[in-house]
Design a protein that fits this description.
The complex is a heterodimer of chains A (about 375) and B (about 290). With about 375 residues, chain A is an alpha+beta fold. Chain A contains eight helices and 20 strands. Chain B starts with a helix and ends with a helix. Classes of the chains: A alpha+beta (about 375), B mainly alpha (about 290). Magnesium ion binds next to helix 1 of chain A.
Chain lengths: ~375, ~290
């Protein structure tokens, strides 16, 4: 499916397809912009290796450098330092029209003076693909994105979701090595957005093309991606699969950015084997896996997800991490209750308790409660 | 007044001032002129309405050279303006950066001076031993009897110069609103810079060129100032003839008949042009 039409030879020649040559590699890429005489470092040294056929997401808050990173892969920006490789081939200084990757722009950027068909055929025509093959491939891809019968429409005569699919077809029809999508669903409403997420994932599986997906929506990234690079301030904070990003955030930033999580900090009381015991207040004990870097007396930050915590009105027993606090707020949220508990040191902890019929506990505002969780559910953060 | 009645009357109220203006300063003179063109008589004895078609026939037979010349001058100056104006509009739109409005202002600066004065300054520039030709003749680059003034080149040049902003501005507007992402998309889809220009920039700028041509070809073809200030006896345009007939000879029927003939010709030309370009499409893109 990833064969590339020989065409004009304008496109970088195909490297031998091999499973272990990554589709895209960024090597210590830095991008400085100069604006108003000041240097803005948008990307501060990003190294990534994206595998063939992978659904890879760049996730991060606004201004963290996602678009800039993607534009360097597409060739619209030249890195200030570092290099970009596509299937092992250095393309750092190759212009976008000679890179075998295609981009889906956030605003779609369809050609307003061309019909759907002409829009989709544009890339193949530039590659001088024979007319009958263009016809066949455009027809096929319009079927994939479910736009058959709308070939003659102009972009402005179509809904946002349809335009989105034209943009997708226009890129996919070229069978690029990789498809770069910059917040492709950003302009759609929630319902359409969810439908398109499923659709995109299906298309990606069908065509088997590497997708690099930029988003600042964590749910989108978690549900669709094979791997996620969480970016912050021009750097990659963590690169892992969605499960690990969620379950084991590596840094404070990732823990705070993904989902709801509780941040705690405590002092190491003792280290026994693979476990460090932290203390907060009297009667509290929190255990985290010891990584050998923190010694007794050091302060350690850790995180625990709200749904991993059990709330009880009596002190629990067993090999658990336990802290004590006072309920400040209870919110009924249908399938679960959300408790806000204040610890002795003033930290707020959020706890989600499922409303399963027999596990409902009754703690109200002002009650003293014990929070407990399995030691493996909390991690020390960098 | 009831709300419904007010809603019904609002559109008429809005077009009322403009409508009155058009009626007094456009429709009435047109009707008067049309009737003039069908009258016969003389200045001394007065003119009377006689369904006299001869003014039209005579006008065409006596002045077809000037009519053809006017169209040729109008077309030539329009082509020159496209050739000069497009790169200017393109440059301001895409490379102007934050100083776009400064460049546009500079472009318009000469046009704060009166039309006639500007044309007379061209006369100074182009005169036989003037600022331009004098020194060139002095160092022997040009023969002594070389002249530009009173040739078609001077008139066409003057026309092209005088109407240039009306060409540049609509082209600029069309180019300026091309989304830069669309150009990046073309590049992303393997188009070279030249192909991007040819397949995307040019088609998207056509509505501007179309408007520019309309706004310059019509006034250039019916102009008489440039020909009378920069031209000679061999460069008389139909505008000069009409002016002469009205103000000097005072043959009002002939002058009016020539005016209507010119107007009809221009209208036919414009419609043919719109057809050829596929206005529907062009205007649609313009309305995007
Ligand atoms: N052309 C430019 N000139 C100057 N600074 C720029 C330019 N493009 C981006 N920047 C800056 O670089 C930083 C990263 O921008 P980028 O567009 O990559 O962010 P992003 O992660 O895509 O954000 P968003 O989610 O808002 O799209 C920002 O601080 C931005 O202001
Ligand atoms: Mg962005």
């Amino acid at each position: 499916m990833t064969d590339i039409q020989a065409g004009t030879g304008a496109v970088v020649a195909a490297a031998p397809v091999s499973a272990d040559v990554p589709a895209i590699e960024l090597d210590s890429v830095v991008k400085d912009y100069v604006s108003h005489g000041e240097v803005v470092q948008a990307v501060k040294g990003v190294s990534l290796s994206i595998a063939e056929g992978e659904f890879f997401s760049l996730l991060g808050p606004s201004g963290c450098g996602k678009t800039t990173t993607m534009r360097m892969i597409a060739g619209f920006e030249e890195p200030t330092r570092g290099s970009v490789r596509l299937r092992g081939e250095d393309v750092t200084n190759v212009p976008p029209n000679r890179r075998d990757v295609n981009m889906v722009f956030q605003s779609y950027a369809l050609f307003p003076h061309m019909s759907v068909w002409e829009n989709v055929a544009f890339g193949l025509k530039r590659k001088k693909v024979p007319a009958d093959e263009i016809k066949r491939r455009v027809g096929d891809i319009l079927e994939v994105v479910d736009l058959v019968g709308r070939e003659k429409r102009r972009p402005r005569e179509m809904s946002g979701g349809q335009q989105q699919r034209v943009a997708l077809a226009r890129a996919l029809v070229n069978r690029p090595r990789a498809l770069l999508l910059d917040e492709p669903l950003g302009a759609l409403d929630l319902k359409l957005r969810q439908a398109m997420q499923i659709e995109l994932k299906r298309i990606q599986r069908d065509v088997g093309i590497t997708f690099v997906y930029v988003t600042h929506d964590q749910n989108e990234a978690l549900t669709m991606s094979d791997r996620i690079a969480v970016m912050n301030d021009g750097l990659v904070e963590q690169l892992a699969d969605p499960r690990e990003i969620y379950e084991r955030p590596a840094t404070k930033f990732v823990a705070g950015f993904i989902g709801t999580s509780n941040l705690l900090s405590g002092t190491v009381r003792q280290v026994t084997g693979a476990t460090a015991v932290l203390s907060f207040g009297a009667g509290d004990q929190v255990m985290v896996p010891a990584d050998g870097t923190a010694g007794v007396g050091d302060t350690v930050d850790l995180t625990v997800r709200p749904e991993k915590i059990t709330i009880s009105t009596e002190q629990p027993a067993g090999d658990l991490s336990i802290v004590r606090g006072t309920v400040a707020e209870v919110v009924y949220l249908g399938t679960y209750n959300s408790y806000t508990v204040v610890l002795a040191d003033g930290a707020d902890i959020t706890v989600f308790q499922q409303n399963a019929h027999d596990s409902t506990i009754t703690a109200g505002r002002g009650d003293t409660v014990w929070l407990s969780w399995q030691p493996r559910h909390s991690y020390a953060l960098r | 007044m009831s709300r419904r009645l007010r809603t019904a009357l609002t559109p008429y109220a809005l077009i009322f001032p403009g409508g009155i203006w058009l009626a007094i300063f456009f429709v009435v003179p047109m009707v008067v002129m049309l009737s003039l063109s069908l009258q016969s008589g003389s200045v001394e004895d007065g003119y009377a309405f006689t369904w006299n078609w001869h003014s039209y026939v005579d006008g065409l037979t006596n002045y077809h050279d000037q009519i053809i010349r006017s169209v040729i001058y109008g077309l030539s100056s329009t082509v020159i303006q496209i050739v000069i104006g497009f790169p200017v509009a393109y440059w301001i739109a895409f490379k102007g950066g934050r100083r776009k409005s400064v460049y546009l202002f500079l472009l318009l600066l000469p046009f704060l001076v009166s039309f006639v004065l500007r044309t007379i300054s061209w006369q100074f520039l182009l005169s036989d031993n003037g600022m331009l030709l004098g020194p060139l003749k002095g160092i022997g680059l040009l023969p002594e009897d070389f002249r530009v003034l009173a040739t078609p080149y001077a008139v066409i040049g003057g026309l092209a110069y005088n109407f240039l902003p009306f060409m540049v501005l609509p082209m600029y507007v069309a180019l300026e609103r091309i989304d830069p992402r669309v150009l990046e998309a073309a590049q992303d889809l393997y188009a070279s810079r030249f192909q991007t220009f040819l397949r995307v920039v040019l088609p998207l700028s056509l509505p501007g060129v179309f408007a520019g041509v309309l706004m310059t070809f019509v006034p250039a073809t019916s102009d008489y100032v440039n020909a009378s200030v920069l031209g000679g006896t061999n460069t008389t345009m139909i505008g000069n003839v009409i002016q002469n007939q009205y103000l000097i000879t005072q043959d009002y029927p002939t002058a009016s008949a020539l005016s209507f003939t010119l107007m009809a010709l221009l209208l036919v030309g414009i419609f043919a042009y719109a057809r050829a370009l596929g206005t529907e499409d062009v205007l649609e893109v313009a309305a995007r």
